[in-house]
Amino acid sequence: MRRNQLYLLLGAFALLSCSKKTEAPAVKKDPVTRDDKPVQVQETPYAFPGAEGYGKNATGGRGGRVIKVTNLNDAGAGSLREAIAATGARIIVFEVSGNIVLNSKIQINNGDLTIAGQTAPGDGICIQNYEMNVNANNVIIRFMRFRMGDLTKNEQDALWGRWKENILIDHCSMSWSIDECSSFYANKNFTMQWCILSESLNKSFHEKDDHGYGAIWGGSSATFHHNLLAHHNSRNPRFDGGSRAGTGKSTFGIDKVDYRNNVIYNWGTNSSYGGENGEYNIVNNYYKAGPGTSSSKRNRILELYMEPDVATYGAGYGKFYVAGNVVTNSTAVTADNWNGGVDRNSGLSTANFALTKQTNPFTAEPTTIHTAEQAYNMVLLYAGASYKRDAVDTRVTNEVKNGTVTYNGSKTGFKGIIDSQTDVGSWPTLNQTAVLKDTDGDGMPDDWEIANKLDPNKANANGRDLSSAYDNIEVYINSLIKAITEAQYK
User: Fold this and answer.
1) Active site residues per annotation
2) pLDDT value at residue 72
């Protein structure tokens, strides 16, 4: 009996065991599943998203090492000067904000360089006291400030360059220079876009005395679009001509310039002039005379000059397509830009002046097309080092918007045309915020890498995990100002 009961119990256990579901053996989970891997976006490679004009194909430091600027020193380890002096392709990022007070000029002699000012934690970077000179090919500079001032009596532009190729200056702010604010001419494949040039110093320390000049611009294949020139006595800009007696024969030949969607405000004695040798599109710009603008020049878009040495430099006058420009002081000039908006210098004969006018635009590298009115609004919203606008750019753009000036020249009394940076309060304080953690030191913060499914413990700045066109580090630095670059072209 007991034996039978034992058999029954054993049978019951067997049935229970068979009725249980068979469980699959535990599988060790791969820490990086298909869903955790970054997605590579297919893109067309330009200097960066939003780069336009002849300089849009510059590559800067793409593929090169990341160099961090960790202090505001003039020179030495961790300084901007040391990073610029390095050789090889390189992308400069910042772990500091503030004014870099130079003891001498910085000259970029080694190309394949990107300077990403938007990476500075806080209010950004400003270069003070001396100029920066672009003396190399393939250079991209973005979201930087160059406010030189007169403390060193340095007779130079705040930022300038010539005789080079593949350069793109984007969203930079230049002011308080003793020569021009920012001159770029005799270059090839060049773009300056979305920059603010303001308040060159007029009666300062220039050997020619009064010299509150905005810029000399030109180049054989050069684009200048969506820039603001405000509070300059003259040269808003001066078009170089490329090959002329003033500068000699350019390496790249005569000017071929596309100048459009710029805003010019409160010029003093002259707006734009020059262009002795070249082909120019002057299209859809916005000219707004200010309180300091001479009464006889308030309608002026451009004054054309004649090259005196025709035997050496050719015809001696440029050819200009001028259309779509708004001159707020004159509805007649706005309706027909050649009806009082384009003048001739006394050296240019009436017959030659007639030959300068072109009825069709010159072929140029495409840019986003805005009307002059649209460009005016967009430039005031987004131009300059606008990731974190400082007090200078905020004041200047408000003055343009309201048609006012806040300060006058301390020596001349000219309205809005200043003589020293002290006339407007000197350099603003640029505050720094906390530096974001970057465990692997590749220039991309840990939190951003994790959010984009990269490994924060593995340096991979030059990987193409996120874009077919841009290095991972480029995707990061472009993401910081994506909202600006997308909104400005709407």
Assistant:
1) 235
2) 99
